[in-house]
Amino acid sequence: MSDSIVKNEDVMTQDFAIVDGLLTVAEAIEVALEKNVEVLFVNKRNENDEYGLVLMSDIAKKVLAKDRAPERVNVYEIMTKPAVSVHDYMDVRYTARLFDNLGITRAPVIADKEILGLVSYNDIVLKGMLKR
Q: How high is the pLDDT of residue 131?
């Protein structure tokens, strides 16, 4: 990596959707298909709440593998909450270390308590490691 700092905001994507926790998993899948995303953030219920996270692998493990009906399971039942988030100004090297320490592969990028984007290992490596 070069000496210049690459920040999360430099490599983040907009490949996510924000959904309400009361949606059924079937409805959440429809949103993911419509928006062509694999990551769903679950919106806060109020300003003191935290964001949740649902990955397609969560749906596979917690709904499909357990033979639960996606029309009868709400998103809030299977989400990870609070979602570990990173700041927009954070150096991607620290983001990679955080991911490694926590065993996660992606996180919302936050500024002013709002989600700006999504950062993943792929984004860090493909967009952040080589200076162009």
A: 61
